[in-house]
């Protein structure tokens, strides 16, 4: 997986997306800009984070779930 | 006698919607939809750890920053595994100091290569030939290039095609042979007799350089 390692920890790009969403819920475009990642990677990554129950999508916006917030809080700054 | 059945699939053509796909890549699972709003160059190579493909991947990596400035992403493909792609990309970086920054599809089940007509049995029954599909931001196929297994692609031409297509889209013009950004562009020819006469009378006023009514060029402002 691109965002979550087999051991359940976020990868470098997964962590960037979680940090971007911890600051503020946003669209894939906004997350890409904040995380400094290409939009295609973010769309694919958000899909993966959604499937893992770490984010949820409301219309065009993504936000962290409780589980996602917990994981984002545990990331080194 | 055993009956041999060969499935005939319609191949993608210019101006058609690019066939959708969901594929395993070196940067995780990707869908064609993930590229909506960006231009995409989807290209295939015969196999990892082969000499011509290695020179091409280094060359694609080198033009990637120029392509990104134009809103274009790169996506490679071959009928190899993700592990093979990763090992090859790491080897290229180790030996040449060039990092492969774009994803590569591991098309082991040949789903994507079949949908895009990338396997030409006259060249190889198992490997993809050197295809380039230029897909625009609305996911329409704008250019298809096929190169044989033995001939590496010309990166300058790929960037030139992107520049030409984006100039056409932005200005409603065409581009002449060997066109480069900054050169004169071709004005669409009139399609009525009246229009042809007007083009010759009015063309000069509008700064056109005309050989005749059907061949007028101008500098873009």
Describe the structure.
Chain A is built from 4 helices and 2 strands; from the N terminus they run αααββα. With 77 residues, chain A is mainly alpha-helical. Chain A has a two-stranded antiparallel ribbon with strand order 1-2. The relative contact order of chain A is 0.20. Chain B is 30% helix and 21% strand. In chain B, the strands form 3 sheets. Chain B has a 5-stranded mixed β-sheet with strand order 5-4-3-6-7, with helices on one face. In chain B, strands 8-10-9 form a 3-stranded antiparallel β-sheet, with no helix packed on it. In chain B, strands 1-2 form a two-stranded antiparallel ribbon. Chains A and B meet through α3 of A and β2 of B.
State the assembly state of the protein chains. Answer: heterodimer
Alpha-carbon distance between the two ends of chain B:
68 Å
CATH fold naming of chain A: Arc Repressor Mutant, subunit A
Poorly predicted segments of chain A: none
Helix/strand structural class of chain A: mainly alpha
How many domains comprise the coordinates of chain A? 1
Largest sheet of chain A: 2 strands, antiparallel
CATH topology of the largest domain in chain B: Glutaredoxin
CATH C-level label of chain A = Mainly Alpha
- Summing up helix and strand content along with how strands pair, one would put the structural category of chain B as alpha+beta
Number of discrete domains of chain B: 2
Helix and strand topology:
The complex is a heterodimer of chains A (77) and B (221).
Chain A: H1 12-23, H2 28-35, H3 39-51, E1 55-58, E2 61-64, H4 66-73
Antiparallel strand pairs in A: 1-2
Chain B: E1 22-25, E2 28-31, E3 39-44, H1 51-69, E4 72-78, H2 82-96, E5 104-106, H3 111-115, E6 130-135, E7 141-147, H4 155-171, E8 185-186, H5 193-202, E9 209-212, E10 215-218
């Amino acid at each position: 997986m691109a965002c979550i390692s087999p051991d359940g920890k976020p990868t470098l790009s997964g962590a960037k997306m979680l940090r971007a969403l911890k600051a503020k819920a946003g669209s894939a475009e906004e997350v890409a800009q904040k995380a400094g990642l290409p939009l295609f990677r973010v769309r694919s990554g958000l899909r993966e984070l959604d499937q893992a129950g770490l984010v949820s999508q409301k219309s065009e916006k993504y936000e962290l779930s409780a589980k996602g917030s917990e994981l984002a809080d545990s990331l080194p700054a | 006698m055993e009956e041999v059945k060969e499935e005939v699939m319609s191949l993608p053509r210019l101006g058609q919607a690019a066939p959708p796909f969901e594929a395993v890549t070196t940067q995780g699972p990707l869908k064609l939809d993930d590229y909506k709003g960006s231009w995409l160059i989807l290209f295939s190579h015969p196999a990892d750890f082969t000499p011509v493909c290695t020179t091409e991947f280094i060359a694609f990596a080198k033009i990637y920053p120029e392509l990104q400035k134009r809103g274009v992403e790169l996506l490679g493909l071959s009928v190899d595994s993700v592990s093979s792609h990763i090992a090859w990309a790491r080897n290229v970086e180790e030996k040449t100091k060039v990092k492969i920054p774009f994803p590569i599809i591991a098309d082991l089940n040949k789903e994507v290569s079949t949908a895009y007509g990338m396997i030409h049995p006259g060249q190889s029954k198992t490997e993809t030939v050197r295809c380039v599909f230029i897909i625009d931001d609305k996911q329409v196929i704008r250019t298809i290039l096929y190169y044989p297994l033995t001939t590496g692609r010309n990166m300058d031409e790929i960037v030139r095609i992107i520049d030409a297509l984006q100039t056409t889209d932005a200005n409603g013009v065409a581009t002449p042979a060997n066109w480069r950004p900054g050169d004169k562009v071709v004005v669409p020819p009139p399609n009525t007799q009246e229009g042809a006469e007007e083009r010759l009378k009015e063309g000069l006023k509008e700064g056109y350089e005309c050989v005749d009514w059907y061949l007028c060029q101008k500098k873009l402002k």
